[in-house]
Design brief:
The chain is α+β, with helices and mostly antiparallel strands. 28% of the residues lie in helices and 14% in strands. A two-stranded parallel sheet has the order 1-2. A two-stranded antiparallel sheet has the order 3-4. Helix 2 links the parallel strand 1 and strand 2. The radius of gyration is 13 Å and the shape is globular.
Amino acid sequence: MRPPLDEWDENYLLALAGPEETSDLEKKASPKFDPEGDKKGTREELAKQVCAFSNSGDGYLVYGIAEGTAARLDIGIKDKVGNQPVKA
């Protein structure tokens, strides 16, 4: 079981950043989340992931973890888009 989101910190994210994904965790590089520059692509990607989670159970979609086998965080994403917190 994963801790609540408000307890996730850089160390926990680094622990998640390994190459494996699970049925309740999907990791994406931060460029895949660009609601200001690529609104359509971001919405399509989010819709795909929400659909997958709705078919398999709940889970977390984490942006800011570099793709590949090395466990590392990438440049990350903004905390808010407009007035809406991204965590929401």
